[in-house]
Amino acid sequence: MKELSFVLQYIKKPRATGAILPSSNYLADKMIEDINFEQARCIVEYGPGTGIFTEKLLENRQRNTTVMLFEYNYDFYNLLKDKFKNEENLIIVNDSAENVGNYLEKYGITNVDYVVSGLPFASLPKEISENILKQTKIILKRDGKFVTFQYSRFKIKFIKKYFKYIDLKREFRNVPPAYVLNCINYNQ
């Protein structure tokens, strides 16, 4: 069911969805493996889609850790609202990640430890990608991490304009294989 929903959204809006299938559990595990869940008090996720990374974040977080999701696609937003309706300290926003600062202010959140992103930077318009990365740099605490994945190395140079230090890993067991970028926010 999750796969069918993803395929339909890809057909409707391929540039916004970015992939024809949801990410694998292998990729989800690789995306969260460097998160210090004992210390994290706020984790933001961009583009959760059907919630594969969200599930891992919620399973591993501390009870008092806030997780905020930004899902632009209204169908995925509704799916997430229903799927995670009983979760505490979870905020689900139907808006662009470009506006993350406004929502953090609205909810009184001043410190973001991690931003996990499933956004397809390779297919998003350049201006939107730039706005999202600028905002991410602003909201992350010093030494906070921006964790994203891409299917090619094409956008790594672009992301390096905002995050100088990137630890690059590869997950071959995803379809297609993906690069995981752990970007550290040193310049805050």
Automatic annotation (TrEMBL):
The reply on keyword Oxidoreductase is no
Tell me which UniProt keywords the record has, alphabetically. Methyltransferase, RNA-binding, S-adenosyl-L-methionine, Transferase
Question: What GO biological process terms does the UniProt entry carry, in alphabetical order?
Answer: methylation
Q: Which domain of life is it from?
A: Bacteria
Molecular function (GO) terms for this protein are: methyltransferase activity; RNA binding
InterPro entries xrefs:
KsgA/Erm, SAM-dependent_MTases_sf
Full protein name: Phospholipid N-methyltransferase
Species, as recorded: Clostridium saccharoperbutylacetonicum N1-4(HMT)
